[in-house]
Design a protein that fits this description.
Chain lengths: 291, 186
Amino acid sequence: MLVSWNYRFRNSPMDHIDPRARFIFSFALLFAATATWNPIILFVLFLIAITWYLMARLTWKDTKVGWFMISIMLFTMIVVNTIITGGGAGGVVPPGGQLVWPGGFDLFGKHFTFGLTVERVWFAISQLMRILSISLAFIIIPYTMDSRAYGVTFSKLGMPDRLAYTMELSFRFIPTLARNFQVTLDAQRARGFELDGGKGNFIKKIRRVAPLLIPVTMNAIVSSEDIANAMDLRGFGEQKRTWLYELKFNWWDWALIVFSVLMLATVLLLAFRFDMRLFSVPGWFYGLFNK
Amino acid sequence: MAKQTEKKSIWAFGTKQVVYAAIGAALYAVLTWAFNVWQIPGAGNVGIRPAIVIPMFFGIAFGPIVGFITGFVGNILADMLSGYGFWIWWDLGNGIIGLIPGLFSALIVKYDEIKSILWGELSVIVGSAAGMGLASASEFWVSGADFNTVLLANFVPSFVTNIIWGLVLLPLLMIAYAAILKRSGR
């Protein structure tokens, strides 16, 4: 089993932004997008997120797996819940409203009635803008951030050194554990083990994972004893930790942080001081459905 | 590894806990990634993940901090390996799935006793309910989803699959771990 990180250096603008500034921006966008249902604010945030995503210079081939998962989520949330079932959208959309097809519609020679309202259509668009804004900000992280940078990034953002080092260490263990997993799988297969094959009830099928899961887990625990002893012998945790991978702020990183703070503050001010957090449908959108 | 009879300090976070948490997170990520091909049709972004037992077990065996980091960091790494992005609320939810069994770890002395296994099983249910409850509830404010969607598309599929894997596999891991402790004389 070959484990490969999705990151590679693309010399994109994103590659030159400090990971700390990137996390600050991403979380500012997350909090800003979830603070309001106002369509204008969501649209502006959506445009900012698209710009951010484009700065990463990722291709469709790079991110298609992630987008597949997001499209399943969007389908469930928007098409199934908001458009088809109209479950009320968590009390965001008021009950009632203007029907899109007041007299029903004809399809394949049959007459259908469908209670879809203009408000629900607009809410679906708002949901799409909000979820896509958040997705655009966060989906790029695995592809554009060097795995060596995580430990030092979280350490410099204020996380205790031991926790940050835990994160760093876990990155390093992944190739070894993936190899152990593959060796165990091959060894069990040589003994006739089949993960999907065989008969039995549901519980027996679940227990079939055990011959694979238990040896891999127990081997990892046993080997961790030696690693901990080696770290103790080298005085781990005795002094403030230094990091091999250095981070350095440039002027554009500070500009991004200031922009992130201003963006979040502006959205919170508009949402809570000027009552722009609630869902509303613009007048022109109703006009599209009035014949 | 702690002796099976000694009194545990569940909040300790020394060198051993750093390594256990790192190993746990990496293991959870690798196994999640390996089993990611099994997805539940029509259930949002919820995958069938036998590896969910890893944060539960690391919580039971090494305490709440190790359990939390195993679930939280492991889920981040698994999503990174799979190219799914970064979903903080689901990462936190997975962390809680490891943290709550860790709180039960104070009650467990011998891992192969019936009583210990029952505490472990209870922790699986409570931990999954709390962890997936938080992660699913995040869809209220992130996606604006209604209660039915959150309950039926997010919470129920993730909670049910997690407890099924946890209830079946956790006792097996606890018994195997007890055997390792006995064999190594620790």
